[in-house]
Amino acid sequence: MSDHLKKERIGVGIIGLGTVGCGVATILLDHAALIRRRVGIPVEITGIADLDITTDRGISVDKSLLTTDVQALINDPHTDIVVELIGGLQPAKQFVDAALSREKPVVTANKALLAVHGEELYASALRHNIDLGFEASVGGGMPVIRTMREGLAGDQVKAIYGIINGTANYILSKMSEGNVSFQDVVAEAQRAGYAEADPSTDIEGVDSAHKLAILINLGFGTPVDLQDIYTEGVTSITSIDLEAAREFGYTIKLLGIAKWSAGVTASGESEIEARVHPTMIRDESPLASVNGVFNAIHLVGEFVGDMMVYGQGAGSLPTATAVVGDIIEIARNIRVNAGGRVPPCSFRPEFREPVRIKPMAEVRCAYYLRFSVQDTPGVLSQLAGILAEHDISIASVLQRGREQGGRVPLVVITHEAMEKNIQTALKTIHGNLSDLPMLIRIES
Ligand code: HSE
User: Fold this and answer.
1) Whose CA is nearest to atom 7 of ligand 1?
2) How many CA atoms lie within 13 A of 404 on its CB side?
3) SS3 316
4) Residue 60 in 3-state DSSP?
5) Stated pTM of the model
6) For ligand 1, is residue 193 a contact (CB within 6 Å)?
7) Does domain 146-312 have CATH number 3.40.50.970?
8) 211 catalytic per annotation
9) Domain 361-443 adopts which CATH fold?
């Protein structure tokens, strides 16, 4: 019998004892019997490394497992799988590199690391014929990575629409309920363990962009540079916009959007739209009812059509469930010596195809525009005139009571227009007629 078949247990070394690390330790301990039934042999923690091993984290882990020596944990011959849960680029990358170069499979929840260094890490895992699991990097507990990597492997993904940041979704949901300040909701999300160490990455859309980069790679078989993902967060959304959206039958969500069009460039290449921004979607759209910390991803496949994955997108135990799912998959592969069977990003690297990322200026969609204008005769017709000059057609207009100083909020919904034209028109309107206009893109 070969060595892997004789293995009596699978050892897991965890790096990082934060929100997710504590969740993983809890599940491995509480569900040890269940996991053994699924893997066939015990899956045991060989050690947990963190800079701080004295603070009580409220978990019942044996103190002798705690260490500050990450390299020793990675090198420990009993550690079969290395789990990286410290987040950020460095030293996380250094630890993942160290594990892969020792031919130890890795599980990580680190979306920033994969969005920036994914290609190198996926290639390294494939080269060493070992697994790299990252289910927890997108959508917390909902299994979207496995769905895209394996469930949809036979289809061409055409579009991805994702609520992929729990903190931003929590903020927008709470603000829609009314009577809460932006800062208070951010603080609540931090207390609940949803927000990143630096919550600006959640509210500025950066975390969603990291996750969208991972999904694009899985769905379209191409790496995407983070700089090419247009990224806008939720910090400028006000209760006026949430209310106005409601009046028009829309809900505002922070969406990661990616669309794939085959062979459309002059040289016959495919093209991708990749953007993260607050988006108005119809109230009856399934994503509109995804509230609080829940995430959902609506995928459109050429043959499968529309499908959705839904679940808690952040938080200790939901995210840890995804990590443990990867540990179990890898443990099973170790037992039959099948590491590296599935490429981390589903596509084989030698079959990548060049793809153009459509510049934001060329994107077309409908728009919600909110102006603050002087309430005098002719203002609306001047404004409509400027929009018309830029090939922008109005679908609806809403004007409500005067503000102090005789100004009035004027909301315009446009038909589909080109982003470049909208931006030029808004500059002219801002210079002549309105305070800084508010723009929210609409997806039908
Ligand atoms: N800060 C992230 C969020 C955690 O709020 O979604 C999960 O990636």
Assistant:
1) 314
2) 0
3) helix
4) coil
5) 0.96
6) no
7) no
8) yes
9) Alpha-Beta Plaits (3.30.70)
